[in-house]
Amino acid sequence: MKLRQLFFILALMLTTLTVSAQPPKHNDRPDREHKFNPEKFARAQEAFIVKEAQLTQQETAAFMPVFREMLQKQRTLFRQYRQFAKAKPQNDKEATKLLKDVDDLDLQIKKIEIDYHAKFCKVISPMKVYQVHKAMNKFKHITMERVAKRKN
User: Fold this and answer.
1) How far is 67 from 73, CA to CA, in rounded Å?
2) Which long-range contacts (C-beta less than 8 Å, at least 24 apart) are formed by 126-130?
3) Rounded to two decimals, what is the model's pTM?
């Protein structure tokens, strides 16, 4: 009888160890990031822009603080977009107001970009500003492609 109890306890312990040694289910895809890291994203964006626009160290040092300032101002407006995305207008009047508000946000974001293009031209050449603009669009496109691939 004691041998049977000892065997049962030993089997139970081995089963418990085996089950607890299994990786969690969310780790099935090692290529998937667990959580969005804004600092990591910002560093990757900046590195991509510096490389694509071929900015020197001096240009990077002068440009990046102004660039971060622009992104910070735009980020506050992008947060408002999330509010609109959650909205569910019940009638044409509400939908019209929502569309007007979204259009106003678009104009404000574009105004910030226009204002900062002028500021950028004061710290780096207009040709480099154009290259930065192209790099930003390319980074956005690549990022969206990666997100779409992860969803599939």
Assistant:
1) 10
2) 128/53, 128/54, 128/55, 128/59, 128/63
3) 0.70
